[in-house]
Each structure stands twice: as structure tokens, then as C-alpha cells.
Sequence to fold (213 residues):
Amino acid sequence: MAAAVLHDYFRSSAAYRVRIALNLKGVDYVSRTVNLVEGEQRSDSYRALNPQGFVPMLEIDDRRLTQSLAIIVYLDQKFPEPPLMPADPVDGAHVRALSMTIACDIHPLNNLRVLKYLTSNFQADEEAKTRWYAHWVSEGLTALEALARPRAGAFLFGNAPSLADICLVPQLYNARRFNVSLDPFPTLRRADESANRLEAFAAAHPDQQGGAA
Fold:
């Protein structure tokens, strides 16, 4: 099978998730940078491939797949080992809830296009954007800590990495970039530390990507 192509940006949380999943599944891929800061995602050539104009997009099996969670589910179904979701339906619902707390509730309020919109339409300065970011991240992580704690082990759920950890690690990376204190979240920090000891997570880190600067 030819190598997959990941349309990627090194600091994109969503692309970071997919890099982790590809690494965990042992899928060979090449990365093509779409520079979000320079607006390459809005170019006609990229929108012809992905009308939404987001990263990541994964070209694999003669298909173009978009949306990070959809891509990761595809990878988990096509490459069953190691599994990223528990087999038990109740456990699976729990892991999905943890994952969606991050990917659907925390991340969208704080991604680059939202922060830019705050500046261009509401004249928010850097201090105001930082307060916005810290508020929504802290609120979301507080809920996530409480949801995860009863069933967490070394990882966010049990003692093996799951979709929830794939979502967590990029979110905590960004929280640290914006100087959000993680002291109130011992369960999340433990899972993050466990995950980042694994090569699949470490190799996906933004600092290890070709576009890092």
C-alpha cells in the first residue's frame, strides 16, 4: 500500500491527534504542510481538495478523509491493533464522551480562527484573547478531570492509550503554550505523562515536525 498523505500543520491540535493515531497504528504516511498562519488552508487549490478548508485531511486508499475524529475512527476500524476504543459499549461511550469533551467543547472555542475573529471583529488584544483562552480551557478541563477520575488508570481510561488520550495530549500541549495552570488536574497530567512516554505520541509532538520553528 502506498504511503498515506497527511495534510498537516505542526501546531494544529486536530492534526496532532491524527499523527498520534497514525503512529500508534504503524501506518506509513508523508506530511504535507498547510500553513494555517499564512492562510494556505483558504487557498483555492486546498479548498478544491477539502472544501471546509481545515486540517487535517488524510489521503488514503484513494479517498480524502476529513475531520480528525472521523479519520481516527477510520484508522481504528481498518487497522484493529492496537485498539483505540474499548470493546464494551458502556466503556466505549465513556471514552467517546471524554474525547468529545475535548474535541467538541474545549478545542473549537480556542482554535486559531476563533482567536483571530476576536481580534478582527471585537478588537480583542493579546491579554483579552489569553483570558478568553484560559477561561474556556480551564472550565473544560475541570469537567474532564471529574469525568475521567473515577475510571482512569495510567491513562485517561484504564491502563492503555485510547482515543481520549489522543485528544488529551494535544489539548494539554496548547494549554501549556498559553500558560494555563494544570495543577488542578492530576488525573489529566498523569495520563499525559503516560502517553508521552510512548514513541507514537513523542514522535507526533509539534517540535518533532518538519514545519516546527
